[in-house]
Design brief:
174 residues, 49% strand, disordered N terminus, alpha+beta
Length: 174
Amino acid sequence: SRKWAKMSSRLMVAGLAWLLLLGSARSQAVTNKLQFLTGGTNQTQITSARLSYDYKRSTAIFQDNVVVDDSKVRLECNELRVVFDSTNQVKSATAIGNVKIKSEDKTATCNKAVYLGETGEMVMIGNAKLVMQGKTLTGDRVTFYLNDDRVSVEGSTELVIPSGGGDLKLPKKK
């Protein structure tokens, strides 16, 4: 049905939010990802024990054993809430409880992760930890400014670099 097709398209877009977490993003890259996810042969798959979708509020809530699988990233959490704007773009996506994100050689964990579509910010809250290329960054709150290639860390901040660990730069998204 048309409603199911519209919801499926929105859910594929929701997966895009998590693709952006562990790298920088540019508007063109976002556009390319959207075209790729909706028109290509690969797909983003979201599974959970329960799903509720509110058409009036344009909100999808996945609960229990949530897994977002894509060729570039895997997200696991207890609950995923996705809010869409009037143009069916992701307004926000919030992963709650035992959040684990894996992308190539990067792994992130936290209690809660929030993606804000309008500003391109990804905020990891509560026991936030990012491990990449042997380096470990932890803090109470880690904010990725995806459109500006910046990261800020607040509260109990720690950066661990192994001997001969190279520079402090986060790798740029390819």
